Amino acid sequence: MAVRRLIPLAVACALAAAAATPAQARGTDEPYCATHKCIALTFDDGPGPYLQTLLKTLTTYKAKATFFLIGTEVKKHPKLAQQIAKSGHEIGNHSWDASYLTQLTYAQINKKIGDTQRLIQKTTGKTPKLFRAPGGLRNGGVEEITAKFGLIQVPGTTATKDYIKDYRHVDLLTNRALDVAGEGEVVLMHETIKETVESMPEVLQTLTAEGYSFVTVSTLLEGQELTPGQVYPDRSGMETTTAVE
Q: Where in this chain does the record put each NodB homology domain (predicted)?
């Protein structure tokens, strides 16, 4: 069962302020997605070798995305992480490596999330407000620690399942992305999968023709009251597990 804790008011206010910034920047209090058909495309495990190709495709279709970065990869490729930020995309924390946090001690979880948070901030100048656990596996310890860092958890609402090797064909992943697309969805994909990156031009072209706006997760969540440590959008149906002591 997930462990809840009281969040310092300053942290909660800071998160709310960050989430409200896109609307304020447009000179309005109305959430963008209240009047637009929004979808949030998210990419895990980078920054990776196909990032620059993906960024060019996103630019072509005026699409913004959210990248959940791995600490070890940011350390290896700091300039790529900086390029994501400079391109106006959102950066989220995806822990230090691929280790399942539910198999770690509280102290180990704290270090992996904290080290990644500090490295991304130091490298890009951006402090992540979003977190996605490796494998989507989370527990009370993850909830408590993400809350401490002012992070909300974003496991995603749907996925192309490009993490399955048999799915790694451009046509299949293109069809998968179009099948799972929907207004308000947060689509989980991986920028480290070449076929996913190669599928994006057709996916973006098709969804653009259908009237979609490609936004960051924070823009998608505008107008909602967000509590650090909790899951958004709250539609994943994923189970939590007990922390390893």
A: 37-215
Query: For the whole model, what pTM was predicted?
Result: 0.86
**Which helix (H) or strand (E) is 38 found in, with range?**
strand 37-46
> Which is catalytic among the residues 77, 89, 94, 190?
190
Bridge pairing between strands 152-153 and 158-159 = unpaired
**Is 148 within the bounds of a domain?**
yes
Does residue 13 belong to any structural domain of this protein?
Answer: no
Residues in the chain, how many? Answer: 245
Q: Which helix (H) or strand (E) holds 188?
A: strand 186-190
Instruction: Please say if the pLDDT value at position 135 is more than 60.
Output: yes
190 among known catalytic residues: yes
Q: What is the pLDDT of residues 47-66, one digit of tens each?
A: 999 999 999 999 999 999 99
Q: Which among 29, 44, 94, 162 is annotated as catalytic?
A: 44
